[in-house]
Amino acid sequence: MLYPKSIEKISVKLATSVMSESRCDALQFYAAHEGKASWTGTANFITLMIKLWNIINVKTHTKGKQKGFQYGPSTPWQGE
Asked: How far apart are CA 49 and CA 4, in angstroms?
């Protein structure tokens, strides 16, 4: 969108705090230890969003390699 409305904008700081690896780890822990199996799907979604953000947040694939990101054919959107 060229001219998003205020409601259509997202705070990057808020988004990264919600979609964090520590939150994902906590969801997976409590899903396993507290019988909250439905939380596993949310944890998987957060993991996918973190990977997507890391992929689109680099200018070149070599910069992604320098940062240590290793996403290959096993990523869900490329098939297995």
From this structure: 22
User: Which token pair is 28?
Assistant: 């997976």
d(CA 62, CA 75) in angstroms, rounded, equals 18
- As for how many domains the chain has, the answer is 1
**Residue that has been written with the tokens 């990264």 in this structure:** 16
Domain assignment present for 19 = yes
**pLDDT (tens digit, 9 = 90+) per residue, 8-28?**
777 777 777 778 888 889 999
Tokens of 56: 């689109």
User: Using CA atoms, how far apart are residues 68 and 65, in angstroms rounded to an integer?
Assistant: 5
Angstrom distance (rounded) from CA 25 to CA 57: 22
Q: Give, for 52, the enclosing helix (H) or strand (E).
A: helix 39-56
